[in-house]
């Protein structure tokens, strides 16, 4: 029975060699891959517009991100359009941030557009949902020498702002939970462009149908976090003093 044992070992070795060969031939260099990390959704002329931003890893290209945009009925139907606008192999859509325009927030149940991200296990559901006071196209077309790529910058300002309670850091999964929790008011962070810079504006409050209701300033957001007992250390609250304002020039 030795020949049976030797034959079995030979088959196992062959399978291992074939597997290694297959992995080697199917590899993709990082410079040749496209990994979309930022998604934008907005409504223009009553049509859904999408915007996608992906980092560029090539040393020969000065601009460190590449953007794509288009019209689509949903995220799944826009996949082929996105692939056609990016070179190389397009990897999984593990978005870090999802920017939503206020025009889209006027529609009831707009959140259902993101349903495909929950159905596909390859997609992440920890994307930060961010509202923008203005067109989403301005955010994705924004260029500044003193700011990092948009996908890195947006996540950074939301995370830093949430730590000092000037905004909230709400993921897609968390927003989904808030929309179905009657004891909570759905809230997402809000940004805008001011003086040729992207800045954190505060917090956007939504209805049960994810519609826009109102915006909170930094201080109002801090008070909201205090009421929810979710405020972090280092909160700064400022109130005007009438008598002091009259004496100080």
UniProtKB/TrEMBL annotation:
Domain named Spore germination protein N-terminal: residues: 27-193
Domain of life: Bacteria
CC per GO annotation: membrane
Pfam families named in the record: Spore_GerAC_N (PF25198)
Coiled-coil intervals: none
Organism: Paenibacillus illinoisensis
Record GO biological process: spore germination
The protein's name in its UniProt record: GerC family germination protein
